[in-house]
Design brief:
It contains 14 helices and 16 strands. The strands form three sheets. Strands 6-10-11-16-15-14-13-12 form an eight-stranded mixed beta sheet, sandwiched between helices. The radius of gyration is 27 Å and the shape is globular. It has 482 residues and is of the alpha+beta class. A hairpin with a 7-residue loop joins strand 2 and strand 3. The relative contact order is 0.11. The structure holds 4-amino-1,4-dioxobutan-2-aminium adenosine-5'-monophosphate and magnesium ion. Magnesium ion binds next to strand 15.
Length: 482
C-alpha cells in the first residue's frame, strides 16, 4: 500500500475494517497510546492508536508534538468520545523528528504576537490552519463569483509608472546603484538611466488598467497584490495586501453598490456553506479570547452572528452629507466621545464608520457622494446639491461592523474635459496619464468599479483581531521576515 489517504477523506466516509495509510503532524500523544494526527486537510484530527509494547523503542520516543509521521493500520469504530473512528496502527514511521526541547512551539495556547515571530510553524496550529483554509476558500469563491457573472480576469501590472490613488504612498522599483546615482545636468536623479527608462514603483491599485479592460471587454476584474508605503501600524493595514477590483462599462454608482453588496454576501455565504468546521474552530477561539477582555473591549457580536449580520440584512445606503448629520446628532458626538472631529469636508474615521454600522443602523452601510477634496482624482463629479456645502463625487465606501471600510469605489469621471481639469487641479503631471485621458476621448463610456481589500474581508470572516494574522507572510513597517 503506497498511497496515503487524507484525513478529511478518512473521516468523511470511514471504511471500517479497511487498511489505510495516513501521514501528518502529531498534535498530541497521550498515555503512550493515543496520537492525535492532523494533515492539514481538515481542522479535525484522526486518532491513531498504537501499542507501545509492539513499537520499537526508538520510534516511541520520537512521537513528539509536531513530529511528522506515517501510520498504517486498520480503521475501527472508536469507543472514545469525540470521534467516530480511529486508526489502529500496526506500523508507525517517523518522517521528520521534532525535538521538543528545541522546537519553538509548545503544546499550549500561545499569543498571536509570539506566533507571528514563528510564521514558518504557525500554519500547524488549529487557528492558523483554519484561517488559511478559509483564505483559500474566499479566493476561490471570488473567481467563481465573477466567472459565473461573465466577468473576465484581467492581470494588471505589479510594476507601474503611475500613482493610481494619487496619495504618494509608493515603493520605488529601481536597479540604479544607490551609491552612484546618475544625475541630469540640473542635478536631479536621471531616471532615464534606470531599468525601464523612467521612474517606476509597485502598484497601489490595478484600477486604471482595469478601466482599459472594461472599455473593451465590458466587465473585468483584477485580483492581485498591491503595495502601500503608508506608515500605518494598525490592526487593519498592511504594506502588501491583495485587492479585488471589478470594473464595469455602463454601470453607474447605483449598479456599483448593488454589485458590491451582492459580492460581499456571496463570499460570506460560500464560507458558511462549505467551511462550517473551520468557522467553528474560529468561533470557539474568539469566544475564548473575548472571555479574558474587559466588557467595554468585547466585540458587539460573536463570529457567526456577525457573518449573518451581513448576509441577512439589506445594506443601508446613505450619502456622506446624511452621515455627517447623523453623527453630529449622535450621543457619542454630543458627549465628546469621538476622538476625531465630525465636520463636513473631513474624512470619516473608523470610529464614525463603526458607530453608523453598529449603533445607528445595525446593518452594513454604504456611504456615497463624498466631498471631492478628500477623494481620488478619477471619481465622477456630481451636480451641485442644495444640501451640500461643497462639491461631491460619486464615491462609495462599504462599511462593516468591527473593521469599518472593506470596499472603496466610485463611478469614474468619463468626461474628458472635467477629468483633465481635475488632474491639473491636483497637480498630477498630465503626461503620466496620457493613455488614461485618451480612453475618454476615443469611444469612452460611463463606467464604475470598486476595490475590496482581500485581507479585510478574510479578517472579517475569520474574526481575527489583527490583519497580520490572515496573510501567511505579513509585510508591515519594519517587518519583512520570512
Ligand atoms: O479605498 P481604496 O484605496 O481604493 C482603491 O484603491 C481603488 N482604486 C479601488 C477601486 O475603485 N478599484 O482601497 C480599496 C480597499 C479598501 O476599502 C480596504 O479594504 C483595502 O482596499 N485597503 C487595505 N487593506 C489592507 N491594508 C491597507 N493598507 C489597505 N489600504 C486599502
Ligand atoms: Mg478607501
Amino acid at each position: 500500500m503506497k498511497s496515503r489517504t487524507e484525513i478529511k477523506d478518512v473521516l468523511k466516509a470511514p471504511a471500517l475494517g479497511s487498511a489505510v495509510l495516513v501521514k501528518g503532524w502529531v498534535r498530541a500523544f497521550r498515555n503512550n497510546r493515543f496520537i492525535a494526527l492532523n494533515d492539514g486537510s481538515t481542522p479535525h484530527n484522526l486518532q491513531v492508536v498504537v501499542d507501545a509494547d509492539k513499537l520499537p523503542e526508538g520510534i516511541l520516543r520520537k512521537i513528539n508534538f509536531h513530529a511528522c509521521i506515517a501510520a498504517k493500520g486498520t480503521l475501527a469504530e472508536s469507543l472514545g468520545s469525540g470521534q467516530a473512528v480511529e486508526l489502529v496502527a500496526d506500523e508507525v514511521h517517523i518522517l521528520g523528528e521534532c525535538n521538543p526541547e528545541e522546537y519553538p512551539l509548545q503544546p499550549k495556547r500561545q499569543t498571536m504576537e509570539f506566533l507571528r515571530t514563528k510564521a514558518h510553524f504557525r500554519p500547524r496550529t488549529n487557528t492558523f490552519g483554519a484561517v488559511f483554509r478559509i483564505r483559500h476558500a474566499v479566493a476561490y469563491a471570488i473567481h467563481k463569483y465573477y466567472n459565473d457573472l461573465g466577468f473576465y480576469y484581467l492581470h494588471s501590472p505589479i510594476i507601474t509608472g503611475s500613482d493610481a490613488e494619487g496619495a504618494g504612498e509608493m515603493f520605488r522599483v529601481t536597479t540604479l546603484d544607490l551609491n552612484h546615482l546618475p544625475r541630469t545636468e540640473s542635478g536631479e536623479i536621471d531616471w532615464k538611466e534606470d531599468f525601464f527608462g523612467r521612474s517606476t514603483n509597485l502598484t497601489v491599485s490595478g484600477q486604471l488598467q482595469a478601466e482599459i479592460g472594461a472599455l473593451a471587454l465590458g466587465k473585468v476584474y483584477t485580483f492581485g497584490p498591491t503595495f502601500r508605503a503608508e506608515n500605518s501600524n494598525t490592526p487593519r493595514h498592511l504594506a502588501e495586501f491583495w485587492m479585488i477590483e471589478p470594473e464595469m462599462a455602463f454601470y453607474d454608482i447605483y449598479d456599483n453598490m448593488d454589485l458590491a453588496e451582492d459580492f460581499c454576501k456571496y463570499l460570506i455565504r460560500y464560507v458558511l456553506e462549505y467551511y462550517a468546521d473551520d468557522l467553528a474552530v474560529l468561533d470557539a477561539r474568539l469566544r475564548e479570547e473575548e472571555k479574558n477582555l474587559p466588557a467595554d473591549k468585547r466585540r458587539p457580536m460573536g463570529l457567526l452572528e456577525q457573518l449573518h449580520f451581513v448576509v441577512d440584512n439589506n445594506f443601508e445606503r446613505i450619502t456622506y452629507t446624511e452621515a455627517i448629520r447623523l453623527l453630529q446628532n449622535s450621543k457619542p458626538y454630543k458627549k465628546g466621545q469621538f476622538e476625531f472631529p465630525v465636520e463636513w469636508g473631513r474624512d470619516l474615521q473608523a470610529e464614525h464608520e463603526r458607530y453608523l454600522v453598529e449603533k445607528e443602523f445595525k446593518k452594513p452601510v454604504i456611504v456615497r457622494n463624498y466631498p471631492q477634496a478628500i477623494k481620488a482624482f478619477y471619481m465622477r463629479l456630481n451636480d451641485p446639491h442644495p444640501d451640500e456645502p461643497g462639491c461631491t463625487v460619486a464615491a462609495m465606501d462599504v462599511l462593516f461592523p468591527g473593521i469599518g471600510e472593506v470596499i472603496g469605489g466610485s463611478q469614474r469621471e468619463e468626461r474628458h474635459d472635467v477629468l483633465l481639469q481635475r488632474i491639473r487641479e491636483v497637480g498630477i503631471p498630465e503626461e503620466e496619464l496620457w493613455w488614461y485621458l485618451e480612453l475618454r476621448k476615443f469611444g469612452g463610456a460611463p463606467h464604475a468599479g470598486f476595490g475590496l481589500g482581500f485581507e479585510r474581508m478574510v479578517q472579517f470572516i475569520t474574526g481575527m483581531g489583527n490583519i497580520r494574522d490572515v496573510i501567511p507572510f505579513p509585510r508591515t513597517p519594519k517587518n519583512a521576515e520570512f
